[in-house]
Amino acid sequence: MLSTNSAETECIYDRESELRALDETKSGVKGLVDAGVEKLPRIFIHEHHRLNKYSVCSEPKFSIPVIDLQSIDIKDASVRGRVTDEVRNACEKWGFFQVVNHGIPLTVLDDMIGGIRAFHEGDLEMKKQFYNREFSNKNVVYNTNFDLYKVSSSTNWRDSLNVVLLPRRPDPEELPAICRDILLDYTERVQALGGILFELVSEALGLNPNHLKDMGCTDGFLLEGHYFPACPEPEITLGTSDHSDSSFLTVLLQDQMGGLQVLHENQWVNVTPIKGALIINVGDMLQLISNGKFVSVIHRVRANNTDARTSIASFFRTHLPPENSSRVYSPIKELISEDNPPKYQEITIKDLVEHYYNKGLNGVSALEFFSINY
Q1: Concatenated DSSP letters for 266-332?
Q2: Pairing, β 278-282 against β 96-100
Q3: Domain 55-370 belongs to what topology?
Q4: Could you tell me if 101 and 69 are in contact, meaning their C-beta atoms sit under 8 angstroms apart?
Q5: Is residue 306 exposed (0-12), middle (13-18) or buried (19+ Cβ within 10 Å)?
Q6: How far apart are CA 283 and CA 297, in angstroms?
Q7: What would the pLDDT profile of 250-260 be if each residue is shown by its tens digit?
Q8: What PANTHER family does its record include (predicted)?
């Protein structure tokens, strides 16, 4: 049985047992809500000094850049150059930006949000078929908190459906029927958009448009469909705790609930949802190969007590063995010099992902472990 945060249970709190109790229900955070929980179980309470380490920006209109891709196919070098400059500025200063007029219809975005929400709000016995904590040999995994048992991590108020799509493409029959068709449609469109984004990012780095694709940055593709139920005490927990992404690039689709915050100049900046927009952010692997020119920024998701929040994060990187190859990545040689020596070690994606999963979402960038100290 999970204890609540009352003083009466302080002396009998056993974190490991309560984590195991949550895990064994296979119903996640949604199961707690369905059971009528009114006080947060102790495992979800985040330390006050971590929750409030940085202040929240008080300027409501201050947010990440918005980039319009509508004219990107026009054979006009000046138009392409303007968009490339905007991408460079966003990747250098923010590590985040939103794209509009990206070519994916609003109906597809809405249906994808609806499909993932329908899965998480669907029949428990259906969801239990996908519940697992073993990622290495499964294409489809549903669970709560991939880092549930990590000592350094606080438990987050969210459940997730994880789907590996490249290079280990799943059989459609492996996918949940309730969201199968829209998931396949949406991910095909995001992969196509990813090709455009990597061209722009390559050009923003001063490289050939195909440079990053030729390095294998688009070879892997992993989707995570997150569900954040309405929380009875949102002020003492998080939907997703402080972290950076391990990808080259991440494409995020979110509903209109809000809650995403990006750490910028030592303050949390709220990312206001724009209907039809997609959020793009630099991941750790792109920061590494760009030698720190583009930044993988810490971000988090606040819990709320109004309604459930749904988001879909698409990560461009390979996942876990056996699909992770032995390909070594290091700062791109064209971006280093005597005055700008390599800041990071040569690593494989396997090295980064294993370290990332072992440390959990503890607010510390995985790249710190791979930095070169001169």
Answers
A1: TEEEE----TT-EEEEE-HHHHHHTTTSS----EEEE--SSS-EEEEEEEES--STTS----EE-S-
A2: antiparallel
A3: Jelly Rolls (2.60.120)
A4: yes
A5: exposed
A6: 8
A7: 999 999 999 99
A8: 1-AMINOCYCLOPROPANE-1-CARBOXYLATE OXIDASE HOMOLOG 1-LIKE, OXIDOREDUCTASE, 2OG-FE II OXYGENASE FAMILY PROTEIN
Query: In a 10 Å sphere around its CB, with 0-12 CB exposed, 13-18 middle and 19+ buried, how is residue 189 labelled?
Result: middle
**What confidence score (pLDDT) does residue 319 get?**
80
Backbone angles phi, psi at 276, to 5 degrees: 90, -5
- Helix, strand, coil share of the chain (percent; to 5): 35, 20, 45
For the chain, what are the domain ranges?
55-370
Exposure letters 42-61 (e unless 16+ CB within 10 A, then b):
bbbbbeeeebeebeebeeee
- Longest Cα–Cα distance in the chain: 69
Closest CA to 128 of 2, 24, 20: 24
Tell me the percentage of the chain whose pLDDT exceeds 90. Answer: 80
CB proximity list for 47: less than 8 A, separation 6 or greater = 154
Of 134-138, 234-238, 311-315, the least confident: 134-138
Higher pLDDT, 102 or 79: 102
Which pair of structure tokens corresponds to residue 130?
């996908």
Tokens of 365: 């960038």
* Beta bridge pairs of residue 41: 4
Stated pTM of the model: 0.94
Cα separation, 80 vs 73, in Å, equals 8
Answer whether 202's CB lies under 8 Å from 212's CB: yes
CA distance 112 to 42: 33
Q: Report the SS3 class of residue 126.
A: helix
Helix (H, G, I), strand (E, B) or coil at 66: strand
Separation between Cα atoms, residue 352 and residue 358, nearest integer Å: 10
